[in-house]
Structures are given as structure tokens and as C-alpha cells.
Design goal:
With 362 residues, the chain is mainly alpha-helical. Helices cover 68% and strands 2% of the residues.
Length: 362
């Protein structure tokens, strides 16, 4: 396949939509630093350029090679997660590995590794086997091992996104509904046990979620300030660089987890809806590609990556609006964070490789 033909097959509309989110993120981070490109906005833009270059480079990789390497990627992800337990850094947690002064968060690419491994496993199984629960046990193990390791860090937000993304692939592979309902019943029955496994601060977050007004100056401070900022933005917002909650530093973590709130304060409900629309278009674009690719592996991979981006967005927005407990989840391509951004772009690159090399012949 010629270089020109590959370039023409790359889903440039996906990169265009991602570019819009990166632009919004750069402006938000510029505002978060009170009108300065340092320390966040400039780096965010540079990382985005690197990420888009990665998408184009990965598009040139034969998709069959990605399939052959999928189990290797999972093994590497698990090994790096093990390394985090030994040499990991963080304030009271072990989530990052410092390399040359730069922090790398292994739990982010682990989500992609799980999706690829699950897609390969299911693509190698005859369809009639998928009627029996026994054949799903290896898939559940693929999810459970990195999930448990990420919870151990602890990083419940990323662990939940890995879990949801993996379960979407399992469901898309043909999991019968009776097993879905049975699993939901088992999860509900296990809630008391799961509660006992939570860390003290995680329990506080859940209780704050259930009653945020109980401690508005302590555990409920973040969500209280987030709701104030969102509500004060009205429909069209206060204007760029004019958000009082963010500019006066009442809003914590405005450059990462609560960047959606800051955008809502400055650009209002209309700005938030615009962002959600772009995420919806990205998800739809990737899911449409899943219908255009040929192999089962490519289809499941695209579905998993599309829903991974959706869960990134859903968990963050639900968290900052009080619909979910605060679990620490970035807003993809907008929040400051190099590993999460590059993970999303690598996912887009895999999707691009699928549509370039594995597409149905029309």
C-alpha cells in the first residue's frame, strides 16, 4: 500500500475533533494559570502535537502486527504495574514512575492493553463457545489482574474505567443477557464486602457523595465549589479569564479533574454542551469505524477504544457535577496530563491502523 493511499485512509475527521478538544483544553489551562502558557497550557499543546504525530505513525503499522503483539502489550502493562508497586511515586499513593524528571502513569496505557488482549481472545474463539460462561473466565482474568493492581495503588477512578471498558468488549463479544443480569446481582450482593475493602479516604468520598452538605469546608469542599462554579456560569458563562471561582483559586484541581467545571464557569452551559457534543461525535465516529473494518479483532478493538473515550468523559463529568463520587479522573484531551492524553491518541492511532489495513473492501 502506498504512502498516499495510507494517508487518504486515515480518519482525519477524528483528528479534527480531537484537535478541537485540545484547543479548548489549551485555552482552559491558559486561563487556569491566570493568563500564562506556563506551566500547563504550553506543555499541553506540545503533547497534543506529539500525540497527533503518533496517530499518523501508528496508522502505518500493519494491523495484523498489532494483533500479534496484543498479549505482549498486556504482559508489559502488568510488569510495569508491578514496577509501580516497587518504585512508584505520588503523594500518599503509588501511581507514577519517574523517568528523567517526567512522570509516567502505567495504569493509563493498561486500559488499551486490556482492550487489545480481550479483542484477540474473543476473535480466536468460535462463536458457539460464547454461549458457555466457562469460556469467559480467561477474559475476566484479563480484566481482573490489572484492575486489582490499579486498585492497590490506589487509583479507583482509572480502575473503574479499565473495568467498564473491558466489560464493554466482553458484552460486545456476545455475553448472554442471563450472565449480565446474574453479574449485576452478584455485584449488588457483594457491596458490603466491597465497602470493607475501600480505603478510609475512599469511604469519605462515597459518604460525601451521598451527603455533600455534611462537610462543605472539608471532604465536600471540592464538589461544593464545583457546583457553585457551574451554577454561576449560567447559560453563556462569565467570559474567558473571568471565572471568579477558578481565578481566585476556590476551585481545586482546576487544571486536571475539575477543568470541565472551570469551562462551565467561563463559557456556561453552552460551552459544556459543546464539549459533550464533540465527545459524542468522537465516540460515534469510532463506533462507525467498527462497522467498516473486516475482522472481529478490529471490530472489538474499535468498540473498546470508542467506549474507553466515552467512559473517560462520563466519569469525569458525572464526578464534577455530583452524580458520582470524586474518584480522580481526567477529562480526555482537555485536562492536563501527558500519559492520559498520549493514551487516547495511541488509541486513535490503533483505530486508524484498523481502518487503513483491516477495512472491508467495497
Amino acid at each position: 500500500m502506498t504512502v498516499l493511499k495510507i494517508l487518504l485512509r486515515i480518519p482525519w475527521h477524528l483528528l479534527f475533533l480531537a484537535g478541537i478538544l485540545v484547543l479548548v483544553g489549551s485555552l482552559a489551562l491558559y486561563s487556569a494559570s491566570q493568563g500564562s502558557w506556563q506551566p500547563w497550557a504550553g506543555r499541553h499543546a506540545v503533547r497534543a502535537i506529539v500525540g497527533m504525530a503518533l496517530v499518523v505513525c501508528i496508522a502505518f503499522i500493519d494491523f495484523s502486527f498489532i494483533k500479534r503483539m496484543s498479549y505482549v502489550f498486556l504482559a508489559a502493562a502488568i510488569l510495569v504495574l508491578l514496577a509501580v508497586m516497587v518504585v512508584g511515586t505520588g503523594q500518599g499513593v503509588s501511581r507514577w514512575i519517574s523517568i528523567g524528571g517526567m512522570n509516567f502513569q502505567p495504569s493509563e496505557p493498561a486500559k488499551l492493553a486490556v482492550i487489545l488482549a480481550l479483542a484477540r481472545y474473543f476473535s480466536s474463539q468460535p462463536h458457539d463457545r460464547m454461549r458457555s460462561l466457562v469460556w469467559y473466565f480467561p477474559a475476566f482474568a484479563i480484566i481482573a489482574v490489572p484492575f486489582a493492581m490499579i486498585v492497590k495503588q490506589p487509583d479507583l477512578g482509572t480502575a473503574l474505567m479499565l473495568l467498564f471498558g473491558g466489560l464493554v468488549v466482553v458484552f460486545s463479544a456476545g455475553l448472554p443477557w442471563r450472565y449480565v443480569f446474574g453479574s449485576l446481582a452478584a455485584v449488588l450482593a457483594a457491596v458490603p464486602l466491597l465497602w470493607l475493602q475501600l480505603k478510609a479516604y475512599q469511604k469519605v468520598r462515597v459518604m460525601t457523595f451521598l451527603n455533600p452538605e455534611s462537610d462543605v469546608l472539608g471532604a465536600g469542599y471540592q464538589i461544593a465549589q464545583s457546583k457553585i462554579a457551574l451554577g454561576s456560569g449560567g447559560f453563556f458563562g462569565k467570559g474567558f479569564l473571568m471565572g471568579s471561582q477558578s481565578q481566585l483559586n476556590y476551585l481545586p484541581e482546576k487544571q486536571t479533574d475539575f477543568v470541565f467545571t472551570m469551562i462551565g464557569e467561563e463559557f456556561g452551559f453552552a460551552g459544556n454542551i459543546f464539549i459533550l457534543l464533540i465527545y459524542l461525535l468522537i465516540t460515534i465516529a469510532i463506533l462507525r469505524i467498527s462497522f467498516r473494518v473486516n475482522s472481529r479483532f478490529a471490530q472489538l478493538t474499535c468498540i473498546g477504544i470508542g467506549m474507553m473515550v466515552f467512559f473517560y468523559m462520563f466519569v469525569n463529568v458525572a464526578m464534577v457535577t455530583g452524580l458520582l463520587p470524586v474518584v480522580g479522573a481526567p477529562l480526555p484531551l482537555i485536562s492536563y496530563g501527558g500519559t492520559s492524553m498520549l493514551t487516547v491518541f495511541i488509541g486513535f492511532g490503533i483505530v486508524a491502523s484498523a481502518i487503513v489495513h483491516d477495512r472491508r473492501q467495497s
